[in-house]
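Worked example (supplementary).
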Amino acid sequence: MPIVKSIRTLRSLLQKARLKKKTIGFVPTMGALHGGHLSLIRICQKENDLTVLSIFVNPTQFGPQEDFKNYPREIKRDILLAKKENADIIFYPSAEEMYPSGYLSCVEVKEPGNILCGQFRPGHFQGVATVVAKLLNIVEPDVLYLGQKDAQQAIILKKMVKDLNFSVNVKICPTVRGQDGLALSSRNSYLTQEERQEAPILYQALLQAKKRIEQGEDNSQNIIGFIREHIEKNSSGKIQYIECVEGGSLRSLKKLKGKILIALAVFFGKTRLIDNILVNVK
Amino acid sequence: MPIVKSIRTLRSLLQKARLKKKTIGFVPTMGALHGGHLSLIRICQKENDLTVLSIFVNPTQFGPQEDFKNYPREIKRDILLAKKENADIIFYPSAEEMYPSGYLSCVEVKEPGNILCGQFRPGHFQGVATVVAKLLNIVEPDVLYLGQKDAQQAIILKKMVKDLNFSVNVKICPTVRGQDGLALSSRNSYLTQEERQEAPILYQALLQAKKRIEQGEDNSQNIIGFIREHIEKNSSGKIQYIECVEGGSLRSLKKLKGKILIALAVFFGKTRLIDNILVNVK
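After joint prediction of all chains, the assembly is encoded as:
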């Protein structure tokens, strides 16, 4: 399994595959691979001739006060895991390869980048959209695989692909969870043992909220209040936001109807966790 | 010569050509074709198996007070001219095809988009970068042909292609001028007979400035002053800006050295004309 650091080398490898009419699937990651990433690789593997995995901790999507420096980097372990899942190529560029001196360009998906996580992480989704636009131009995959865990990111990237006419299909794959329901995330490694024990409350609260909606509750403020109370009563979690939005546009909903996304961000100690659930109300 | 309005149809046409290993050259225009555009088509024709010409008056690159509504639209004449130059495909989409309801994304090249013309046309180069990013994703050409007449646009698009890793070569082709030196432009049609007679002063002033630099003048303020005086003394032109910048980055220069771009924008009546000249000082 080649581990490629240069854009030029990757392009020439992929060009050869394309000439042999191989289909290319692409899984972009920041490494520190967990079961969620591995499930994306597995799905990609099944659906394409060639699976390209990128590992790049993208500096432009981190705010100045965020965890860029401390973000877990475990490249040797990542390579072993990717090999085990039969990924075909790992693209592992340096920051200089991706953003050479004099770099000036960016891509933005305006509205949905400024709500939910975007309110609290200014510039984050511009960083994400830009790096994925670059990666799509480098890899030119047939299919792009993203995780539902980062729901806002997935929706923004799907919108970018549509708006800017990238010729790639986007597949959003289910969140992978621990046995206790906690969504897998590279940032879970920051949690203390105590925080780790409390964190599954997020998914429990989301599941119970979903049940309430399915039982007829259609007021978003009631649902948000219920989730808030459930988390605050049963854990030390500090809520950053809880929102009920329309699942496609991410626009705020008062009355819960149609395809709803309930999304939240909660701090356990210094660690910020996000999670979400989709509910379909007919 | 097919005239294609739908992105999907264009893609399937081009995919067939690509499977036959044909190289694709691309000339994006806003129509109202003149000798400058035709020279791009001719160069593209020579260097590629297939020449795609796009004609799209892009609304997002016009300011609210600008000439979007009145911009010359001469599609029948354009088709005849393109046929004569043996363009292979004309892509002529509607605004709805390019920006369907709910469109939200944009591409920006930060620094060079905010100087020269960018100071006076906020959002203009974001509009240009966005539509060309879309067109590159739709056409996926081997080579993109741009005119030196719109020097800032060409430099910004070249930078976008490099920064965002579009796999296309960018060729910037020489400005085509009338016998009296006026750079060909679709906006020349706005000029009154009198203004048209005055307008060649721009290139005369640029040529004389170039001569002065080659003779040893290396102070940009002196050159700018000289051009200003030459235009103001000999015409009714109202200067918007005259600048001497570094030819690659478009950064302002005090001392003239290296690859210099002298660029200007001047109003004749209500018509804004731009022109520029490259000077190499060793």
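Two points are worth noting when inspecting this output. Chain A touches chain B through 28 residues (CB under 8 Å). The beta strands of chain A are 3-4, 24-29, 50-55, 89-91, 105-109, 143-147, 169-173, 238-246, 258-268, 271-281.
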